[in-house]
Design brief:
- With 91 residues, this protein is mainly α.
- It has one domain (10-86).
- The protein is built from four helices and no strands.
- The chain has helices at residues 10-16, 25-50, 55-68, 76-86.
- The longest helix has 26 residues, at 25-50.
- The termini are far apart.
């Protein structure tokens, strides 16, 4: 097994929500992916709001679109995760 060291600022450490200094790579990638998803959702919500939609309307529209198609590849757990990110208090 190999070990890598990554240096980040205290602000980034807190922003990404790291809780310990040594973590498995899979946990590291999960944390980074969640932050990227949050950033993408913030951009989407911001764009939607400039077009006159609220975050709630955006979420409802998304849920309705996903469940229109029973063959949808988006799982209910992913929908829940997206809902949690959109409803996140850390915006």
């Amino acid at each position: 097994m190999k070990t890598i060291n990554v240096q980040i600022s205290e602000v980034e450490y807190n922003t990404f929500g790291f809780s310990k200094d040594n973590i498995p790579f899979s946990e590291f990638t999960d944390i980074i992916e969640r932050q990227i998803a949050r950033q993408a959702l913030r951009s989407s919500v911001s764009l939607a709001e400039t077009q006159g939609l609220s975050a709630d309307e955006l979420l409802v529209a998304h849920v309705n679109e996903v469940y229109k198609d029973e063959e949808s590849s988006i799982s209910p757990s992913l929908m829940l995760a997206q809902t949690e990110v959109i409803g996140s208090e850390d915006w």
